[in-house]
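Q: My labmate handed me this sequence with no annotations at all. I'd like to see what the chain might look like in three dimensions before we decide whether it's worth expressing. Could you predict it?
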Amino acid sequence: MEVSYKSLGLVNTIDLFRKAVKGGYAIPAYNFNNMEQMQAIVQACAETSSPVILQVSSGARKYANQTLLRYMAQGAVEYAKELGKGKNIPITLHLDHGDTFELCVSCVESGFSSVMIDGSHHPYEENAALTRRVVEYAHAHDVTVEGELGVLAGVEDEVKAERHTYTRPDEVEDFVGKTGVDSLAISIGTSHGAYKFKPGQKAEIRLDILHEIEKRIPGFPIVLHGSSSVPQDLVKKIDKFGGKMADAIGISEAQLREAAKSAVCKINIDSDGRLAMTAAIREVLYTQPGEFDPRKYLGPAREALKELYKHKNVNVLGSAGHAFD
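A: Here is what I predict for the chain of 325 residues:
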């Protein structure tokens, strides 16, 4: 049975991105796999009055079950309305790194309001053709589409690449024109996972490439993947309570804030959330080895994730206070 995202109370990204580009902030795109993550995301965004994109990867769909995820997204809308005392923040349900036409179709039919088709592993013309095919289908259902040019290094669920292939600014105008995408994910040095840079390597992203791309497609919505900052206090906390996260390094929050002030209107953050939850869980299990009630460690993990994402909305993405623009 085909489900429209509108019946779930979700929105697509058209108005969100238009307002973000104009306002000089980025919409948070937070991945979730379970109830506690979803609760923390909605709480953080409701408390900071921020719009939000709930992201689901192919791996998350397999882990949590696509039917349950649909009802969780619908529940997120109702939960946000409850927290806002009847006033609801805009929520998008987005497929992260869809790699086939069939997967994108399945998500559109099950209530997603936005999908990403990542054809960056194909040659340029094949990527453009696949992206165009997804756009034609999704737009017929009023669902927005994110494409990708360039390849990000790192590992996240089923997305793996050993090295960066930076987006070529001279290709973006042609790609956007050929495909009709609503937003474009670019590669400027961000990467998936918690190990984005090698020890001693300068931890910087190529803002010069970003600014050149902006010149080629002025005002067009740009997306940054792999944008976790890997807070070192969380890394140290994980290690303190029995973990092993040596050499985990992320993206500077200052650089992300600069990017968010430009045409970058969606910033994806996943690893930071994993670190926050893992640190909280490890602390409980390490300091209270007799504890076996999942609520006693998932509850603190949820609270830690909420506080992290509130910080991101206010101090990094600049999205706080823009839910009702």
